[in-house]
Amino acid sequence: MHLTRRNRMKNKDLLKEENKELMQALSQALKEDDEDAMAEAFAVFATGVQERIMEEYGDLRQSKDATILASRGIRQLTGEEKTFYQAWIDAAKSANPKQALIDINKAMPETIIDEVIDDMRESHELLSEIDFINCQGAVKMIINADNIDLATWGALNSAISTELAGKIDLLNMTLAKLTAFIPVPKDMFVRGLGPEWLDNYVRIILSEASSAGLEKGILKGTGKDQPIGMCKNLDGAVTQGVYADKAKVSLKTLEPKEYCAAVAPLAKKPDSVGGYRTVPEVMLVVNPVDYIQRVVPSSTVRATDGTYKNNIFPYPTKVVQSAALDEGEAIMGIAKKYFMGVAAGDSGMIEYSDEYQFLEDNRVYITKLYGMGRPKDNNAFQYMDVSNLQPAPMKVEITNTVDNPVNTKAKA
To answer: Do 250 and 304 share a structural domain?
Structure first.
């Protein structure tokens, strides 16, 4: 009996869920610096993406409806993007793909990196909350420590110049490199995948592979050949390029007094600037297990109609889950006070590698993104200990005014 095409196709929702689990495995491998587990998880993830792309290509390759294609991630390419991908396809089909790619000598167009960043923002909440940009062409970025007013009344004398200089930081955007592996099965090229379809595959691989590494760097990066994490003390000791962690602030309940006491230090500008700032909302980043076991029970209340209301905080809070954090630890802060810039630049050329054959019948390509990230000031984030976070107390009040004139209160 022959299976129908529909029966042979893997359910897209199931494939999406499998990829989610594989990305969690990749995040765990990154957290533990386990290169073998990292390679295995990424290889399986790439296979799932390849299956989805080839399945949809079979369904839609004759379609000219831009709306339908866009709904599947197939976007209209610029002339520069189409030329870049077509050159890659032609090089892959050549007898010597490595030399053919060298002959192209062209970096990935900046617009592709823009799309990858948008994809990462859309699928990774942490990256959508921070100040995350494409810094293409920038060797150094100017960081304004606290959105200070750079205007001044009166003459600009040397004292004022010195004061302003202390509030502006220059961030070297070439300090860290993020190498992304792009395993492309030869069958993709043999079956005639065009530039638009290759673009869809490359953006998925780049966004998911890069975002896992970026999250780790943004939250816990040491500062040595990687971003400076939110948990690091910018004013503390730096040993061979590695920044020390901040002391953890213990958070045991979400009762207003304790929780607001944890938030309050964020309203102080750094000592070099002085003064105070408003904090309309804080971001609380936690491990997914902690979110379920600790944060939800602590931030859940029962309404008068018997239903439960989740994520109730005494101060406006955006909770973000990240597998880059260990259980029991969390980071609280002002999301936009973290700057992260990435770019392809000259290092964004696609290279063919014989060294990373994760899968059979695959050609593995690599591209190197560069960038850097750090908190804009040392008061913008708190490193938290939530290992002893307690559930919210459930209070039940019973009033009997008929049989017993004395009110009776009970706590459950």
So the answer is: yes
